[in-house]
Amino acid sequence: MKTRLIICLFFAITPFFLTAQYNPKALEKAEEAVTAFKTKNAKFETYFGEAYGYAVFPSIGKGASGIGVARGSGIVFEQGNAIGKAKLNQVTVGLQFGGQAYRQIIFFETAADLQRFKTNKFEFAAGASAIAVKTGAATNLAYHDGVAVFTITKAGLMYEAALGGQKLKFKPFKGVNQTKTTEASSKKK
Question: I want to staple 158 with a disulfide (CB 3.0 to 4.6 A). Which of 71, 98, 124, 139 is the partner?
Answer without folding.
Answer: 98
